[in-house]
Structure formats: structure tokens, C-alpha cells
Design goal:
The protein is an alpha+beta fold. Among the domains are: 244 residues, no CATH class; 87 residues, no CATH class. The protein contains eleven helices and six strands. The protein has a six-stranded antiparallel β-sheet, with no helix packed on it. Helix 1 packs antiparallel against helix 2, helix 2 crosses helix 7 and helix 7 packs parallel to helix 9. It is flat. The C terminus is likely disordered.
Length: 531
């Protein structure tokens, strides 16, 4: 009968975590979203964008916010749930009934592992797509220039189909115009042609409207319903306001460029493999040049370069990427491959090959055929092609330095993507690490209340993300391996959590209603003894 009891207890513990987990996730997400709105709202509204585009920008920011706040919500839920259980003496009752601390910790850590798995899938499959769409949308918004550029001696379409402007001279520094002609087709019943000797243009602070101040000109107006009616008005100063200038957003449909934060783990592993292949090829080029230089010093002929080089590995690396490719093969039908055209009946065995057919591999060339040409030397980017029948290039001064720069650049590119890969795993695993840290803190200080939850969460978040940002910088500079750059905060907090669980596991350390006074006494034992 122990197994049903444990199941009931596990379900009870997990139910205690659901409400604070949902509340913390919603609260943190809303706070960070409001911060994002406060930073971007003025820039987006000033562009004259429709509200649907503004809402899309903020909705595309939600996946990144959720990926960051989900581990934070786990820590808050664990701290609140266990502190409430300990304050109500439920933990004491469970221990008195023979329930060990391990039975209390295992279901919570299992649920945290499930949350970590979901967080990783979210950051690997949903987040790159949303980041890509958000970046392209922001680029399109930045490209949308209300202060459009006018060209001289050209009829510029200011408002589509309604307002056209031509100027003989345009000073971009002062926005002054010379010999201006405006064709106003906005009124369906009247057509106006406005001419001016000079003028000046200015924009509203939001950049949506264009103000034209024209000097010394006339307005010629024709009534379309009565072509015989023609009006001409002379003026000295004429001010015109043109609304919604350049208020069209051109959306990018196909953007093939993707940064590291817009790629999944499998895509980044492909980039890492290509960078390593490039670094190995650079090393082979260096060895080839050095070998030729030594052969020259020894009086030997130059060696031929291997034209095949290294073939890049296109197979997905890791069980996760192979499983995704297999799953995609099940869900997406395989594209049909067209059969090659019929080449006729193959020749019988022993017959000479047909004219134009390639000889079999390993067979001697036919009689009278020219000898096969030696392989051409490999073309190295950045170097001029050697003349035909010239010996292989000798090692020049500084050639190895250039090759080492190629190797270092390839290593830095690979390290940057490896750091991003480990970051996805580390942030997802932070849900388990934070649960491991929160349990002993809540059991040791159960009467800390909401203040303890907020203070502990703030300290853990600050230290964790400072370590994450610092490790990312060190990993990108090749000062630390990508694994330790991203996993060091997780390893440190895991060690603290395990040490805390070991300390509170003993019966003598059962929760006794500790509060903030006990917290200060824990970290200041000498002052307490002196008092």
C-alpha cells in the first residue's frame, strides 16, 4: 500500500506548485513585456504604423520573455510551496509519518525536469522562428522612412496616386527646393498644378506629415466636370501639408539570413561542423606550404596539392538532431526523384566502351588515347592563380600567419555557435537547478513569507544571469570552453542546492519556524555568540 500513498502525496505536492508557478510565470512575463512596451512604444507609434503591426511586434517578443521567465517561475513556485508546507507543519507531519525528504524532493525534481524539457523544446523550435520574424519585421519598420528621399529632375510620387512633386534642385542639407512643380490629383473633381520659384520642406516630429512652404508661384486649377472653367491664383507664400507621407510598410517575404539566435540546435551544429572543416582545411594548407618549402630547401620537386580536400560532414550530429530528422521524414513525404533518361542497352561484358562513355574505374586508357592530366592545384581564396606549368607556390614570408588567422576566425565562429547551443541547454536545465536550490532554503526558513521568496529569487536571478552573460563573453573570446562558459552557474548552484539538501535532511534540522532573525543568525554566528 506504499505506492498509492506515495502517488497521492506526489500529486498533492505538485498541486501546491501549480498555482504559484502559473502566477509567477504570468507576472514575470507581464512585467518584462511592459518593460518592452515602454522601450519600443514611442518608436513604433511615431512611425505611423497600423495597430496590428505594433501588436505583432510585442507578441513576437513573448517567446523570448517566456524562455527567460520560466526557470524564474519554477524557483518562485518551489520557494512558496515548500515554505507554506513547512510553516503549516505539514513537512513535520510527513517526516513523523515516515516520509523521507527524498520522497518529497523526487516528484518536484521530476516535474522540474519535465518543465526543463518543455523549455528546451520551446527555445529550440519556437524561439528561433519568432526571433527571425521579429528581426525581419523590425528591419522592415526601420526601412520605412517617412522622410523619404526626393530626386532632382524627376517626378516623385509623394502620396500614391494623389500627390506628385518635381524640383529642379534639392539641397539635402537645408531641404530647400528650386523650380518646384506639384501635381495634386487628390480631388477627383479638380486637378491642380502648383508651381513655385523656390520653397522649403519640413516634417512633423513623428515624421508622418510633410510641410511645404512655397514662394513666388501660382496655382492652376481645372474643373473636370466643366473643362472650360480654369482658375489661376498667384501667391507669394503658400503652405501645404501632405499627410501620411511614405506610410507604407513593405514586408520582407523571404529572408535567408539567420543569426545564431534565429537557428535551432541542429542548424547551429551544422555551422559549427562547417567552421571546423574550414579550420582543418586551413591547417592542411599550412602544412602543404611548409612541406613544399622544405622540399625546395632539400632540392626536391614540389608536391602536388590534394584537390579533393576534406569533405564536409552533412550528417546531423547528436541523437536529438537525428531523431528530429527521422521525425520530419515521417511527417513530411519524401520528394520524388526523377529517373535519369534511358541510355540504351548496356554493352555486353568484354566489349569496348562506347564512344563518349567514361572508362571503368581502374581500367587502363585505350590505345592511342592521351595520357591523363595531373590534377590541377587547389585554388586557395585570396591568392592569385599560378601560371600553367609553373611549380607549386613556395612558402612566402608571413603565409603561416595568414593561415593561422583563418584558423582562429573559424574557431571563433564555431565557439560563438557552440556557446549559443550550450546556452539553450543551460537555461532550460536552470529549472531543475532552481528547484534544487529553492527546496532547502524554503525548508530552513519557512516563516520568511513573501519577502523571503522575493529576496531569494532576486539574489539567485542576479547572480545566475551575471554569470551567464560573463561566461558567454569569455566563451566567445576563446578564453573558456563553451561548456564551462555556460554551465558554470548551473554547476555552482547545483552544488549549493545539494549541500543545502544534505544539511536539512537530518531529523534535528527539521523546520522549526525559522524567520528573518534565524537567517541573519545563520550568516552572522560570531555576532550572535558575542551578544
Amino acid at each position: 500500500m506504499a505506492r498509492p500513498t506515495v502517488r497521492i502525496l506526489s500529486r498533492y505536492l505538485l498541486r501546491q506548485h501549480l498555482a504559484p508557478l502559473g502566477f509567477a510565470l504570468a507576472a514575470f512575463t507581464l512585467l518584462m513585456l511592459l518593460r518592452q512596451v515602454a522601450q519600443q512604444f514611442g518608436n513604433l507609434v511615431g512611425k505611423g504604423l497600423p495597430w496590428s503591426v505594433v501588436l505583432e511586434v510585442f507578441l513576437l517578443s513573448v517567446p523570448f520573455i517566456v524562455a527567460m521567465t520560466l526557470p524564474m517561475a519554477v524557483l518562485v513556485a518551489v520557494l512558496y510551496a515548500f515554505s507554506q508546507l513547512a510553516a503549516d507543519h505539514e513537512i513535520t507531519a510527513m517526516k513523523a509519518s515516515g516520509v523521507s525528504l527524498g520522497r518529497l524532493v523526487v516528484p518536484v525534481l521530476s516535474a522540474a525536469a519535465l518543465v526543463a524539457t518543455l523549455a528546451f523544446l520551446w527555445s529550440d523550435q519556437v524561439l528561433p522562428r519568432s526571433n527571425h520574424r521579429l528581426r525581419t519585421l523590425l528591419v522592415d519598420i526601420q526601412r520605412k522612412k517617412p522622410s523619404f528621399s526626393l530626386k532632382e529632375q524627376v517626378i516623385n510620387e509623394v502620396v500614391s496616386g494623389q500627390f506628385f512633386l518635381r524640383a529642379a534642385r534639392i539641397d539635402p542639407a537645408t531641404n530647400r527646393l528650386r523650380d518646384v512643380t506639384i501635381y495634386d490629383l487628390g480631388d477627383p473633381e479638380r486637378r491642380r498644378i502648383i508651381s513655385a520659384d523656390s520653397g522649403r520642406m519640413a516634417y512633423t516630429p513623428g515624421g508622418r506629415d510633410l510641410y511645404l512652404t512655397l514662394l513666388d508661384g501660382d496655382i492652376r486649377e481645372v474643373n473636370r466636370t466643366d473643362p472650360t472653367q480654369f482658375d489661376r491664383t498667384l501667391y507669394v507664400v503658400n503652405k501645404i501639408r501632405v499627410q501620411n507621407v511614405g506610410n507604407t510598410l513593405e514586408r520582407t517575404e523571404n529572408d535567408t539570413y539567420r543569426s545564431d539566435r534565429e537557428m535551432s540546435v541542429c542548424e547551429m551544429r551544422g555551422v559549427v561542423a562547417a567552421a571546423r572543416h574550414e579550420a582543418e582545411q586551413a591547417r592542411r594548407d599550412t602544412r602543404f606550404l611548409i612541406d613544399n618549402d622544405l622540399r625546395r630547401l632539400a632540392g626536391l620537386g614540389p608536391a602536388l596539392r590534394d584537390t579533393l580536400g576534406l569533405a564536409p560532414d552533412t550528417e546531423p550530429q547528436g541523437a536529438y538532431c537525428r531523431a528530429l530528422r527521422r521525425l520530419a521524414g515521417w511527417l513530411v513525404p519524401t520528394a520524388a526523384i526523377a529517373a535519369p533518361p534511358h541510355q540504351g542497352v548496356p554493352p555486353r561484358q568484354g566489349a569496348p566502351p562506347r564512344q563518349g562513355a567514361p572508362p571503368k574505374q581502374g581500367a587502363p586508357p585505350p590505345r592511342g588515347a592521351p595520357a591523363p592530366r595531373p590534377p590541377e592545384p587547389m585554388i586557395v581564396p585570396g591568392r592569385p592563380l599560378p601560371p600553367r606549368n609553373a611549380p607549386a607556390p613556395w612558402l612566402a614570408a608571413g603565409a603561416t600567419v595568414g593561415e593561422e588567422q583563418r584558423v582562429r576566425a573559424a574557431r571563433q565562429r564555431a565557439a560563438g555557435y557552440e556557446v549559443e547551443i550550450h546556452k539553450k541547454y543551460a537555461i532550460a536545465a536552470a529549472a531543475i537547478v532552481f528547484a534544487l536550490v529553492g527546496i532547502p532554503v524554503a525548508l530552513r526558513f519557512p516563516r520568511g513569507g513573501v519577502g523571503l521568496v522575493l529576496a531569494t529569487s532576486l539574489i539567485v536571478y542576479t547572480v545566475y544571469y551575471i554569470g551567464l552573460i560573463g561566461g558567454e563573453e569569455l566563451g566567445n573570446r576563446l578564453l573558456v570552453s563553451p561548456f564551462f562558459a555556460m554551465w558554470t552557474p548551473n554547476l555552482l548552484f547545483s552544488a549549493l542546492g545539494l549541500a543545502g539538501l544534505w544539511a536539512v535532511r537530518r531529523p534535528g534540522d527539521a523546520p522549526q519556524g525559522g524567520d528573518w532573525t534565524d537567517l541573519f543568525r545563520t550568516f552572522l554566528p560570531r555576532r550572535r555568540a558575542a551578544a
